[in-house]
Fold Amino acid ABC transporter ATP-binding protein.
Amino acid sequence: MITVTDLRLSFGSTEVLHGITCDVAEGEVVCIIGASGSGKSTLLRCMNGLETPSRGSVEVNGHLLTSKERRADLAAVRRDVGMVFQQFNLFPHLTARENVTLAPRKVLGLSAQEADERAGRLLAKVGLAAKADAFPGNLSGGQAQRVAIARALAMQPSVMLFDEPTSALDPEIVGEVLAVMKELAAEGMTMVVVTHEIGFAREVADRVIYMDDGRIVESGAPQELLSHAKTERARAFLGKVL
Ligand code: ADP
Ligand code: MG
């Protein structure tokens, strides 16, 4: 579903991704862990075309994103890849339902009725049928993040990317968002999740990638990497977060 090949990315003269190669199979759940500043968000943003590779390539569901050719496939990738951010990024002046219907109406051309039906179904799926007419300002962080997940799913993406989706939430509501993500994984959604929730990675991930300083240092099954990391760097990181 995703193939990243020798991806390099610079901001100005500073290279922050130093040749990343990895792939994600259809239906696979991959968690990316690593210290702040190691390039996790930048890698994720390359997977939906929010950043342009300086060198190398990213292919998502057959659509190629490179520095030269990316334009042709950018719109297709954006439609095909759902993204959920730490800060929700809901439109504050739209209700939960309107947040979910906007892109299907504008981008996919669904009728108001079709989009409303889809939004109703998805808000029910994330446990928020009763909040469809609420504005983001009147939702808890956990509810807002679940609306953001419903909004991404409304485009019927092939892949869902999550960038620290629970890092801005109070500890007692992290679980309600992780539960929705776990259900998505069980349904077979292809997911790449940047997270510090090691318990989630252990339980849900098919594979864990540990990044440091713009490189993939280690990658493997959760039981292996999280309990028996091969590199000293990964062990030191895990010692701090576990
Ligand atoms: P992480 O998500 O692992 O914390 P990031 O991908 O956000 O790491 O950042 C990786 C590196 O790239 C950091 O050194 C960060 O300061 C730098 N960086 C990220 N975004 C930008 C940007 N838009 N302009 C310049 N530097 C950036
Ligand atoms: Mg980040």
Strands lie at 2-11, 14-24, 29-34, 55-60, 63-66, 81-84, 159-163, 190-194, 207-212, 215-220. The first strand starts at residue 2 and ends at 11. Residues 40-41, 163 surround magnesium ion (ligand 2) (CB under 6 Å).
